[in-house]
Amino acid sequence: MPSDRRGRLERRRFLHVVAASLGGMTWSRVAAGQDAPTGRVRERAGLELITPATKTAIERGLNFLNQRQITRGNLRGAFGSNGYAAGVAVCGLAGLAFLTSGSAPGRGKYGQAIDRCLDYLLANTDENGYISAQAQGGQDRMYGHGFATLFLAEAYGMGVHADREEALGKKLRAAVRLIVNTQNDQGGWRYQPVKSDADLSITICQIMALRAARDAGLDVPEATRNKCIDYVKRSHTGDGFQYTLGGGRTTFALTAAGVAALNSAGIYDGKEIENGLKYIMKHKPNGTLEAGFSSFYGQYYAAQAMWHAGGDYWTQWYTALRDTLLRTQRNNGSWPDPGVGDEFGAAVGCIILQLPYNYVPVFSEG
């Protein structure tokens, strides 16, 4: 391995280790020069919450994803035959589920599956950096771009094989540049990769991707972060968060996204966070999960928000959601999601259950 490449790889691995151990220094209160928070203590239960039954459920979910990944042809690396079939969003989330288990590109039990995810997403990144499975209709739009960029950034931070490094670095930078350049004047993003209106559901996908890219050593303008923080805070309604600045219902999923968005931008305290956490807690799982996209989508962000909050918020939420996921997992290892596809449910379920492992910087402690 040439010495210059080795130096870059070791630097990225170092950034990954530091981010994992410090909860992602970039954009954190430490990086911003802020004092440690007063009030709520962020101590949290960790690996002790992953029971033997939870480990079995995780393994079954990951095996399901591994078996459902397409391994041949033009769709090699993609997932799914229903819902958002072959979409880049599900591919990115499945890749994150494998990374969250402790595997890395080319390494570990799911290293080859991660490599296939990389290859599929890189093949579906155009020269402008837009990641979208156009052959499948590009149906997941900026949702997919955000999830895919998030996965690519985390994989890049862990280090990839030399034959993927140059292409990954080039396309990841283009994908990040596209996000930065399409942020609208309000500070958010919308379905298409152009400056238009904005909604919170799309915006959270982009800010998490930018956080991961910054953690991996890529340049992301501070002005982009600041505008996003302003947009998300203005989406706060006094208790939860709403869909757009123009209005819309305050919902569990949007409130979870709002809190997670601020966390991703390095904001862990304030009225928006505290009110949002209280709102989310009103929807603590009780043994069943609603069907459809909003259910697993909301749980994906709610679990992250509670993990960052720590204390009783985290312990109560994770325990309730863990037990619900164990109860509702299918025999084949998946969780049903008729709106998007079983692979989406399996990926999100595995990510949630594995949060205490703390392997992926963007999900790690803040």
What do these coordinates show?
InterPro entries: Terpenoid_cyclase/PrenylTrfase (IPR008930). This is Prenyltransferase. Keywords: Transferase. One of its GO terms (molecular function) is transferase activity. With 366 residues, the protein is an all-alpha fold. It has a single domain, classed as Glycosyltransferase, CATH 1.50.10.20. 55% of the residues lie in helices and 2% in strands. The protein contains 13 helices and two strands. Strands 1-2 form a two-stranded antiparallel sheet. A hairpin with a 2-residue loop joins strand 1 and strand 2. The chain is globular, with a radius of gyration of 19 Å. The two termini are 35 Å apart.
Question: How does the SSE layout of this entry go?
Answer:
Elements: H1 3-22, H2 52-68, H3 88-100, H4 111-123, H5 141-158, H6 162-182, H7 200-215, H8 222-234, E1 242-244, E2 247-250, H9 252-264, H10 271-281, H11 293-309, H12 311-328, H13 342-353
Antiparallel strand pairs: 1-2
Helix pairs in contact: 1-5, 2-13, 3-4, 3-5, 3-13, 5-6, 5-7, 6-7, 7-9, 9-10, 9-11, 11-12, 11-13
Keywords: Transferase
InterPro entries: Terpenoid_cyclase/PrenylTrfase
GO molecular function: transferase activity
